[in-house]
């Protein structure tokens, strides 16, 4: 349900009643909470991103300033990480879309005569959510570890050189990212396709369109809301992820993404301004992308 | 709270009601009195303000201006749960998480009335559904749900029962059956019923008094027969049944009749059946009151005659034949002829004259669209 | 594209995808029976020991318990706050509606690492000591929007006439809420609560930024990952998985039985 978050065209059957007290009582606590623990932290983040080391203070002490050079610094220092973040996110999102679409189509359209089967298959799609994110990522790491039979057989058939491994490569990181976020893609696609009226497809073939053309001209455009919300739900968390790319999981220093540098700067070396600048940058780029994407796809009511 | 268990109906009075919603006025200025024990129908097309009126009476909306009195008590500011009024909702609004019996007992429980389940069972008995008491609403057919909704409202013995298009969701046959049942129940319990509908046949069949509503105003109010026999406005003439309307300047007046001139034809209407006696007025007659002739009938003072016209279309509807006749300079006239197996053999294109009794004419207060005075 | 594609290739594809999705779960489950030592990398033989003595491993059960506690408290608050907002959004018209929608949308469109770092900066600025309390504050924040979205769908499908019928039948606003609105929204509210708990329980990134020294189960796994995660973590993960699947399947089967019974009677 929440996976339709980005395509919430919930019908509002609001009555134009007197708003006043009731609405305020309903909204105020939750909105105040978001104000205190979402909005002001963002402001705090921006402030920290502009701060400078305390000239009189010691290690990891900063004072407020308007040091925009912090941004220039993180962009030049962490340019490869920034590129990796968005590059990996793009590739993994496209892969997840390619893998998810036929599956969502099968569950949402082909399996319609069997509602119970549909429900069971949906349970299988979200099954990975029920086991810890970290554990399932570790499981892949161990299956593809340097000592594993998979890697040694790949080396034997010459697919990998004898000193080549899988864990730590961009391939493995993208593999993990794709795997971990497939359900976020499949569910909104399913929601869209499930509502697709088969009669449109029949009308399409009735009007002399080949199956491929029916797909391109009818099915896919009609499932676009699902494609949009699925790609956003996948792309955003992937761009900020740092588990898959972490050296302890599927990555290595050569695969580190923005999330990894934010974590390292914030929690390990306490360079709060750099970590904050990177965070603000990440959020800014994502918001720009989301706005642009949503506008371009002509579904502005998404927001 | 209305704790006393009222069994009689009460008068309903609406005084100078105005209701505005952001962007539009639903009700302009409404005065209405519904006498106790009456079956009163509010009839009108969708968007005319009839449902808003009902919701105002129920307390689900508050009027922008005006007063609502039930049995002489001002309830304008009273909350819905404190009004001695119950509603049968259009969608029935049966609580899906409760059994039928619990649904019916709900109001009694809220008011802490003794033996709610026993009284609920009696109410279900009245609508012949006691055998379904333990079912959930979703398991019932539309007609059964409708009767549960009725029992749930009636069991509270309200002073006033509001029915919001209660038969709207039923198919035609069931609808006619329920009309009879509903009327019988109203007579049995003797409560005041305020029934909102857009179905003129339903309103005329059941109600003692019908008020025709249009654009937030009551156009005309009266007994169904009176309304049908003497509509006073173009809207009522066209909304209640079908009417032929002729527009012309008043050419002569006598002691008890007014005549207009329409494309050279003299059309008369009794003075007491005409709203206006001078200027440009519209005169109407009902298609079933007219007959047509293949020869020009001799002029008589108690009969209006127009023609000759040409038969454009004949429609066979079973009970009657409907003829559409084009009269030059006058427009199209509809005439119904009872299907008694002896109508003259008339074919398309044939020339006919149309006649009807002057006493069946009615003069309207306004003019059809496109005929407004310059 | 041949017409046979839909007949044969798609089901086969679906089966293969499901296998792909389930492999790591299966792996985790199998290795929870590994007679391993400190790390759990190589298969050393089958044992029930880790399941029977799960809490013997230092820190595992404590972290797990802490995660449950945090999940429950966060869920209660996020569900209450979110449900109220959802009702207001669907049932009332007010001026700042689109701003409210945007404010609810933004946390879902913000990467967790940004949420985590932002909140950590806030706590740092205010001089709040990080710990279980700050984790809960963070979890309520990011669960809130998901609760709103989930409950909103349910409120929208609720016929307003039902509440009006309640008011008409002598129930005051409080009674209407508890006897009609709440029971009818309950499926949506419980779905939101389950989602909220799952999000909180499995969250690592935001937690890591706001935890201080306090452990949660995901943090335990993350910290252990450098040295090797013990099989006891697999036991906990598998147990949670089995429990969740059983709950989901039971709800589905129950719903199906109800649906069939209704269909039969009607």
Question: What features would you highlight for this structure?
Answer:
heterotrimer; A: 303 residues; mainly alpha; MetI-like fold; two-stranded antiparallel sheet; 12 helices; globular; disordered N terminus; C: 266 residues; 77% helix
Strand order of the largest sheet of chain B: 6-7-8-3-9-10
User: How widely separated are the two ends of chain C?
Assistant: 43 Å
**Percent of residues in β-strands of chain B:** 35-45%
Q: Helical stretch count of chain C?
A: 11
Strand fraction of chain C:
under 5%
CATH architecture of the largest domain in chain C: Orthogonal Bundle
Q: Could you give a short description of this structure?
A:
The complex is a heterotrimer of chains A (303), B (374) and C (266). Chain A has 303 residues and is mainly α.
How would you describe this structure to a colleague?
The complex is a heterotrimer of chains A (303), B (374) and C (266). With 303 residues, chain A is mainly alpha-helical. Helices cover 66% and strands 1% of the residues of chain A. Chain A is built from twelve helices and two strands. Chain A has a two-stranded antiparallel ribbon. In chain A, helix 1 packs across helix 12 (272-296) and helix 3 (79-110) runs antiparallel to helix 10 (224-240). Chain B is built from eight helices and 20 strands. The termini of chain B are far apart. Chain C is mainly alpha-helical. Chain C folds into two domains: 64-224, MetI-like fold (Orthogonal Bundle); 230-266. Chain C starts with a helix and ends with a helix. Chains in contact: A-C, B-C. The interface between A and C is large, with 101 and 100 residues.
Summarize the topology.
The complex is a heterotrimer of chains A (303), B (374) and C (266).
Chain A lengths: L19 H30 L2 E2 L8 E2 L5 H9 L1 H32 L4 H12 L6 H11 L5 H8 L13 H25 L3 H9 L4 H12 L1 H17 L17 H11 L3 H25 L7
Antiparallel strand pairs in A: 1-2
Helix pairs in contact in A: 1-12, 2-12, 3-7, 3-10, 7-10, 8-9, 10-12, 11-12
Chain B lengths: L11 E10 L2 E11 L4 E5 L6 H9 L6 E6 L2 E2 L10 E4 L11 H11 L5 H11 L15 H13 L5 E5 L7 H18 L2 E6 L2 H7 L2 E6 L2 E6 L1 H6 L4 H6 L4 E10 L3 E6 L2 E6 L9 E6 L5 E3 L9 E14 L3 E8 L3 E8 L12 E7 L4 E2 L11
Parallel strand pairs in B: 3-8, 3-9, 6-7, 7-8
Antiparallel strand pairs in B: 1-2, 1-4, 4-5, 9-10, 11-12, 11-14, 12-13, 14-20, 15-19, 16-17, 16-19, 17-18
Helix pairs in contact in B: 2-3, 2-4, 3-4
Chain C lengths: L3 H27 L18 H4 L7 H32 L5 H13 L2 H15 L5 H25 L3 H9 L4 H30 L2 H6 L6 H9 L5 H35 L1
């Amino acid at each position: 349900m929440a996976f339709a978050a980005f395509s919430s065209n919930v019908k509002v059957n609001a009555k134009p009643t007197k708003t006043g007290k009731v609405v305020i009582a309903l909204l105020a606590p939750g909105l105040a909470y978001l104000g205190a623990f979402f909005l002001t932290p963002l402001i705090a983040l921006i402030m920290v991103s502009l701060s400078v080391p305390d000239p009189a203070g010691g290690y990891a002490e900063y004072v407020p300033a308007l040091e925009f050079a912090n941004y220039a610094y993180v962009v030049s220092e962490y340019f490869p990480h920034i590129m990796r973040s968005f590059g990996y996110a793009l590739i993994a999102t496209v892969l997840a879309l390619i893998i998810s679409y036929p599956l969502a189509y099968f569950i949402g359209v082909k399996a319609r005569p069997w509602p119970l089967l549909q429900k069971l298959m949906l349970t299988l799609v979200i099954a990975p959510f029920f086991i810890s994110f970290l554990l399932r990522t570790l499981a892949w790491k161990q299956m593809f570890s340097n000592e594993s039979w998979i890697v040694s057989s790949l080396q034997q058939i010459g697919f990998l050189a004898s000193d080549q491994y899988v864990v730590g490569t961009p391939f493995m990181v993208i593999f993990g990212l794709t795997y971990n976020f497939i359900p976020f893609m499949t569910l909104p696609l399913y929601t869209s396709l499930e509502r697709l009226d088969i009669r449109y497809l029949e009308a399409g073939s009735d009007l002399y369109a080949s199956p491929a053309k029916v797909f391109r001209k009818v099915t896919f455009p009609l499932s676009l809301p699902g494609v949009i919300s699925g790609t956003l739900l996948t792309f955003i968390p992937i761009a900020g992820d740092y588990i898959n790319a972490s050296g302890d999981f599927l990555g290595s220093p050569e695969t580190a993404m923005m999330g990894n540098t934010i974590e390292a700067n914030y929690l390990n070396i306490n360079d709060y301004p750099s970590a904050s600048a990177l965070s603000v940058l990440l959020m800014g780029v994502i918001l720009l992308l989301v706005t642009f994407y949503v506008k371009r796809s002509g579904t502005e009511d998404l927001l | 709270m209305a704790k006393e268990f009222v069994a009689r109906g009460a008068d309903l009075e609406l005084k100078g009601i105005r209701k505005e919603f952001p962007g539009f006025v639903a009700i302009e200025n409404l005065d209405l009195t519904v006498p106790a024990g009456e079956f009163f129908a509010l009839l009108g097309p969708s968007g005319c303000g009839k449902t808003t009126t009902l919701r105002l009476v129920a307390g689900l909306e508050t009027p922008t201006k005006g007063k609502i009195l039930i049995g002489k008590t001002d309830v304008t500011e009273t909350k819905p749960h404190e009004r001695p009024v119950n509603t049968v909702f259009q969608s029935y609004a049966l609580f899906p998480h409760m059994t039928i019996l619990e649904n019916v007992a709900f109001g009694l429980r809220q008011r802490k009335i003794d033996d709610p389940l026993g009284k609920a069972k009696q109410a279900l008995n009245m609508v012949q559904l006691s055998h379904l008491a333990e079912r959930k609403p979703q398991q019932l057919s539309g007609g059964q749900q409708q009767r549960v909704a009725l029992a749930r409202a009636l069991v509270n013995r309200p002073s006033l029962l509001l029915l919001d298009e209660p038969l709207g969701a039923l198919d035609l046959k069931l609808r006619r059956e329920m009309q009879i049942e509903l009327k019988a129940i109203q007579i049995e319990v003797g409560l005041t019923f305020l029934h909102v509908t857009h179905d003129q046949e339903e309103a005329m069949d059941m109600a003692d008094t019908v008020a025709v509503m249009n654009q937030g105003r009551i156009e005309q109010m009266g007994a169904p027969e009176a309304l049908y026999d003497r509509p006073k406005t173009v809207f009522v003439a066209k909304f209640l049944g079908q009417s032929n309307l002729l527009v012309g300047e008043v050419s002569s007046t006598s002691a008890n009749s007014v005549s207009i001139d329409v494309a050279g034809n003299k059309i008369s209407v009794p003075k007491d059946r005409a709203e206006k006696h001078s200027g440009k007025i519209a005169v109407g007659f009902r298609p079933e009151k007219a007959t047509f002739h293949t020869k020009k009938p001799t002029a008589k003072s108690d009969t209006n005659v127009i023609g000759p016209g040409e038969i454009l279309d004949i429609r066979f509807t079973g009970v009657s034949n409907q003829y559409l006749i084009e009269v030059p300079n006058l427009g199209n006239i509809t005439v119904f002829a009872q299907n008694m197996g002896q109508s003259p053999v008339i074919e398309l294109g044939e020339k006919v004259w149309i006649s009807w009794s002057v006493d069946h004419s009615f003069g309207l207060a306004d003019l059809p669209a496109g005929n407004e005075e310059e | 594209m041949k017409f046979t594609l839909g007949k044969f290739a798609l089901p086969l594809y679906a089966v293969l995808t499901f296998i792909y999705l389930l492999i790591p779960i299966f792996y985790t489950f199998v290795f929870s029976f590994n007679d391993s030592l400190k790390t759990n990398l190589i298969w050393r033989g089958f044992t029930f020991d880790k399941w029977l003595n799960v809490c013997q491993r230092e820190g595992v059960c404590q972290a797990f318990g802490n995660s449950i506690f945090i999940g429950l408290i966060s869920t209660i608050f996020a569900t209450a706050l979110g449900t109220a907002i959802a009702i207001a959004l669907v049932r009332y018209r007010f001026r700042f509606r689109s701003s409210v929608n945007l404010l609810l949308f933004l946390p879902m469109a913000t990467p967790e690492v940004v949420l985590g770092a932002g909140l950590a900066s806030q706590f740092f600025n205010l001089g709040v000591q990080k710990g279980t309390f700050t984790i809960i504050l963070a979890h309520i924040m990011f669960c809130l929007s998901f609760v709103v979205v989930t409950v909103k769908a349910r409120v929208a499908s609720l016929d307003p006439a039902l509440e009006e019928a309640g008011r008409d039948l002598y129930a005051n606003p409080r009674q209407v809420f508890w006897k009609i609105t709440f029971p009818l929204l309950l499926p949506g509210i419980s779905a939101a609560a389950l989602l909220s708990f799952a999000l909180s329980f499995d969250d690592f990134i935001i937690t890591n930024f706001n935890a201080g020294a306090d452990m949660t189960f995901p943090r335990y796994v993350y910290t252990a990952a450098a040295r090797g995660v013990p099989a006891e973590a697999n036991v906990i993960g598998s147990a949670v998985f089995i429990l969740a699947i059983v709950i989901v399947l039971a709800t589905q089967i129950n719903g199906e039985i109800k649906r069939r019974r209704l269909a039969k009677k009607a």
